[in-house]
Amino acid sequence: MQVPSLDTATLKARLRCQTEAAGFTLFGVAPATEADGFGRFCDWLDRGFAGEMSYLHKYREHRRHPRAVVEEVKSVVMLGMEYGGVSGPHPSAPARVAAYAHGPDYHRFIWDRLNELSAWLMAEAPGSYAHGTCDSAPLLERDFARRAGLGWFGKNTMLIHKRRGSFFFLAGLLTSLELPADKPHTASHCGTCTACLDACPTSAFPEPGVLDATKCISYLTIELRGPIPLELREPVGHWLFGCDVCNDVCPWNRDRQGADAPRSPFPTNPDLAALDPVELLSLSKRDFERRFANTSLLRTRRTGLLRNAAIVLGNTADERALPALEQATTDADEVIAEAARWAAGRIRERMKRGEPGA
Ligand code: B12
Ligand code: SF4
Ligand code: SF4
Fold first, then answer.
1. Atom 4 in ligand 2: which residue has the minimum CA distance?
2. Most C-beta atoms within 10 A of its C-beta, which of 189, 211, 310, 331?
3. Pocket residues for ligand 2 (CB within 6 Å)?
4. What are the sequence ranges of the domains in the chain?
5. Spatial separation of the C-alpha atoms in residues 217 and 118, rounded to whole Å
6. Whole-model pTM above 0.85?
7. Which ligand is nearest to the CA of 151?
8. pLDDT tens track for 71-123
9. CA-nearest residue, atom 10 of ligand 1
10. Per-residue model confidence as pLDDT tens digits over 300-353
11. What is the topology classification, in CATH, of domain 276-358?
12. Residue 135 catalytic?
């Protein structure tokens, strides 16, 4: 919608200041037309790469156009909020949690800010409508972020910004206002680099820029509800929740420290970066829910996190984990009990052969 006598260029500049004050270091506006990557998204679903993430199939058609989210939408304001990243725990930590999960659940954190921004925008342009989303609506966020000029699709499928790298969350503000659009990001800056493709522990990229989520450690440790396929357990290595390998190795993330370090209000909780998998195995459902309330780790439920803890321990040869694993083999939850049996068996085999763990 066009509010009479509204200077949209000035409004856009003022909105940008508001978003910066709210902690979003990346900002761009895309016109609300059909998503450029919708066809790619459908191919990806048809190749079975979404695994058990049934919501992606269910709302497939909704992702074609942002009007499925907000009927009167004219512009999609795309925002990026940075989080820790390569400064996270050392790769040799006994159990690793992806950097994005070292703080509170980012959805809630960002939604609160989006609600304030939407309210601000609607007050500035009475009669207009705005709605914020961060994973909460069927919007191809990376697609609109590229179109809003925020960065390019890396070979690891991440949206990468030349100065800010890829350790940032994306969020969208869908508005009925026609704000001046930014230039889409058309170039790719990956060049001949293949570091992410080579480093992926589970070889989850069937081709550059396409991810088979069913092999991705992030999917296996967070989204998958049942047992992790046997052949993928060893490659999971020390990852207890999520995975950062294809981001960590990306040269565009390397130089983010120092002067250009992330400027983010997203808080981090060092306890979440240094979880002890042995201790996790003794958590009851209630302990689990209390300990991880308001964090991203709650998503796995007790089943997923304890399953992952057992697998991480199975990938070490630490015999000190055996008593906790043996106890977990009697867990009433068969997914946990089975993972514990697998892990205890592996530790014993390794001990017999005198081999070190992963
Ligand atoms: C499902 C999902 C996952 C799945 C699948 C990931 C994937 N690569 O598809 C799993 C569980 C594996 C996952 C993992 C992670 N995720 Co995730 N995930 C999502 C979610 C909810 C949907 C993504 C989706 O639709 N995937 C399907 C594929 C086909 O779409 P796509 O990757 O977005 O690719 C599009 C474009 O790249 C485009 N495209 C690519 N190349 C080209 C070329 C041309 C010519 C064109 C036209 C288009 C095009 O086409 C695709 C369709 O539009 C989004 C949030 C959202 N609503 O978008 C977050 C999101 C993508 N995830 C995010 C994050 C942070 C992660 C992890 C880093 C978390 C972690 N540390 O464990 C990992 C990274 C793994 C990786 N390399 O992608 C961020 C990414 C931010 C960024 N800078 O890119 C998002 C945006 C969430 C957020 N709001 O911040 N995730
Ligand atoms: S997040 Fe990890 S497992 Fe998933 S594609 Fe990247 S490197 Fe591979
Ligand atoms: S690691 Fe290399 S190929 Fe992969 S996304 Fe980064 S620059 Fe592109």
1. 216
2. 310
3. 156, 200-202, 204, 211, 216-218, 243, 245-246
4. 1-180+188-268, 276-358
5. 35
6. yes
7. 1
8. 999 999 999 999 976 544 555 567 999 999 999 999 999 999 999 999 999 99
9. 219
10. 999 999 999 999 999 987 889 999 999 999 999 999 999 999 999 999 998 888
11. Leucine-rich Repeat Variant (1.25.10)
12. yes
